[in-house]
Amino acid sequence: MSRAQPELPLKVVPPKRPDARALAAKVFERHGIRIGEDDPAFALVTLNELILRKLMGELLEQVDQHIKAGLVEFTLTMQRVEGRAAKVLAQQVRDSAGAWQGTLREEISAARIGIEQLVEEIRRTYRIASLTRWCALGAVLAVLVFACGFWAGRL
């Protein structure tokens, strides 16, 4: 899962250079030393500024690298956490499905017992009705045979 890392806003922005006359006036004001605009002290200030900018640039590059490394490590950690969370969720789904399956089995078993009782009741009712019909038919036939015998005896 490689994504492009966003550029970090750590760039060296050159500050505005102060006016040499204003700086000379501040030096005179604080220390009582008069320096001109072409004084070698300004060369030292410029040299210090250049060194400071270079060091700040290097420091910002190191900070950039550390932040990027931290982001990569964070991304990898998040991927591991996502993987672990997925495993935990999958296990919970399996456990839940197992519980539902057990509940469904119990309900199906109870329904099966209820259906078997209904079927047995229907069979019993059908047997009684069938037996009643056969008994009625037997009685009708017995009366018919008796009547035929009585009629044959009269002839």
- Unreliable residue stretches: none
Radius of gyration from the CA trace? 53 Å
How much of the sequence lies in strands comes to: under 5%
Task: Give a count of the beta strands, DSSP E runs of length 2 or more.
Answer: 0
- What structural class results from the helix and strand content? mainly alpha
Q: Helix-strand pattern, N to C? A: HH
**Mean pLDDT across all residues, rounded?**
86
- What is the total number of structural domains? 1
Backbone shape:
rod-shaped
Number of helices: 2
CA-to-CA gap between the ends? 111 Å
- Largest sheet properties: none
Helix amount: over 70%
Structure description:
By secondary structure, the chain is mainly α. It has one domain (20-154). It has two helices and no strands. It has helices at residues 20-31, 40-154. The model has no long low-confidence stretch (mean pLDDT 86).
Looking at this protein, list some descriptive labels.
single chain; 155 residues; mainly alpha; 0% strand
